[in-house]
Design brief:
The protein has 83 residues and is an alpha+beta fold. It has 4 helices and 4 strands; from the N terminus they run βαβααββα. It has a single domain, classed as Glutaredoxin. Strand 3 and strand 4 form a beta hairpin.
Length: 83
């Protein structure tokens, strides 16, 4: 499973979600970071990205546990995943 960590009010997060049809990608799960989503927070901690998320979002964690933070690289990864 590939996880895309995002939050409300994040322009870069919205850009990625608007550029890629994530609804057609069941292997990608969007994890909305907020105080009510304990699953997203637990996964963020599991992948050791809590400190990173305080500085930079969105964060994509691939099924090979590769961590990608550049919106261009995230977009390219998702396009190639869907190809």
């Amino acid at each position: 499973m590939t996880y895309l960590f995002t939050k409300d009010g994040c322009g870069k997060c919205d850009w990625v979600k608007n550029q890629i049809d994530l609804d057609g990608m069941p292997e990608v799960k969007i994890m909305q970071l907020d105080s009510e989503n304990s699953e997203a927070l637990a996964l963020l901690a599991y992948y050791e990205c809590v400190a990173l998320s305080e500085k930079k979002l969105p964060i994509l964690v691939s099924d090979q546990m590769e961590i990608i933070t550049s919106v261009g690289d995230i977009k390219n990864y998702l396009i190639n995943l869907n190809a």
